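Q: Got a minute? One more chain.
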Amino acid sequence: MDEDEISPDHPRATSLRIRSRLSRGFQLGIASVFGLFAHGRGEAFDYLIGEQTTDNARKAMRAAAAALLTATHPILSVNGNAAALTPTELVELAQAANAKLEVNLFHRSPDRLKAIAHVLREAGAREILGVDEANAAIIPEIHSDRRRVDRRGLFIADVAFVPLEDGDRTEALMKLGKRVIAVDLNPLSRTAQKATITIVDNIVRALPILIQLVKEMQPLPKSQLRQITAAFSNDANLRDALNLINRRLVKLAAMAAKQPVDLGDER
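A: Always. Here it is, folded:
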């Protein structure tokens, strides 16, 4: 089903539109079948946070915006799902944060690299790293194709924005001394646990907000931006996300049992 065939009145319209984008991305060779499985897992966690951007996620986005704006070499890593769901937003974020885009894939093939580069160029990208073998470098301790990075990009990056990332590479990037910003709906994943800043939100909701925050925070002094990142605790961030899920589950269970429970503001 194409996006334009989905009725806005359908109770799962947003979810269906996202699935349609991924399905189209798979047909075009952008997303892999394994990426479709990963999305299903993430959608389950989206239910648990109420399919909304929480205050907790917004705090993480503010820290992420500050980190991008204070970086010397900020890089936005793009995989198949991210390219299928938010190509325009990734290009806009790169422009706002003065960052570069780099394609990086677990299931790597020349055709997928070409397809993703094409969709990013259609979205307005002028420079795309990670597609030129002449500039390839290797990240140690990774055994998948994701060890291959661009020596002009992730290899020298001090801040890496890695939405929908896998845990192995997140951990490897951290060991190399990079600050890693993840977008992950699962606060229990290795990616979420290992990253410097984890935005527990759906990428389609998170990126427009992050772009706006980057634009709003651009005039702030670098010293103030560094204070924002220094004050952020990812451990506390993930704990808050898990507590939110716990409160929602208790409330939903009480509602199912028709036992009213006042848990205050869920957000």
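A: Strands lie at 74-78, 100-103, 128-129, 136-138, 148-150, 159-163, 179-183, 197-199.
Q: Perfect, thanks.
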